[in-house]
């Protein structure tokens, strides 16, 4: 639940992986580069393939280091940032709705 965030010498990378029975997914994105990759597999063992695909894409696109781990503090920071962003957006939508109702 949430994004993994890794601080790299060249910037940060974000990622997430997930699964359902029979499926695996992983994405990695480099915000400063403006690129990323999403891998969807239709196998319970598909997560064995995803690091190889990410490494190949990274090499082809000449990405800076994109290995990432998810320290607990980074996950918590991500949750806080996303919650704050959601709260701001909801508040703005409510204010806008109230203004429209007053007209």
Characterize the structure shown.
With 103 residues, the chain is of the alpha+beta class. Helices cover 41% and strands 29% of the residues. The protein is built from 2 helices and 4 strands. A 4-stranded antiparallel sheet has the order 1-2-3-4. The longest helix has 31 residues, at 72-102. The protein is elongated.
Task: Please name the defining characteristics of this protein.
103 residues; alpha+beta; 2 domains; 2 helices; elongated
Detail the topology: elements first, then pairings.
Layout: E1 4-8, E2 11-20, E3 23-30, E4 35-41, H1 50-60, H2 72-102
Average pLDDT value?
Answer: 81
Q: Major beta sheet, specifics?
A: 4 strands, antiparallel
Sheet-strand content, in percent, reads 25-35%
Strand order of the largest sheet: 1-2-3-4
- How many beta-strand runs? 4
Distinct helical segment count = 2
Radius of gyration, in Å, reads 18 Å
Q: Could you estimate the helical fraction of the residues in percent?
A: 40-55%
The secondary structure category is alpha+beta
Instruction: Note the gap between the termini.
Output: 41 Å
Tally of separate domains? 2
**N to C succession of SSEs:** EEEEHH
Low-confidence stretches: none
Oligomer: single chain
Global shape? elongated
């Amino acid at each position: 639940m949430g994004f993994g965030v890794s601080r790299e010498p060249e910037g940060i990378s974000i990622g997430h992986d997930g699964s359902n029975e029979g499926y695996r997914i992983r994405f990695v994105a480099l915000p400063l580069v403006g690129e990323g990759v999403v891998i969807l597999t239709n196998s319970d063992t598909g997560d064995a393939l995803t690091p190889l695909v990410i490494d190949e894409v990274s090499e082809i696109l000449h990405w800076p280091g994109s290995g990432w781990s998810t320290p607990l503090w980074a996950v918590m920071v991500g949750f806080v940032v996303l919650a704050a962003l959601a709260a701001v957006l909801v508040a703005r939508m409510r204010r806008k709705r109230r203004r429209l109702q007053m007209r």
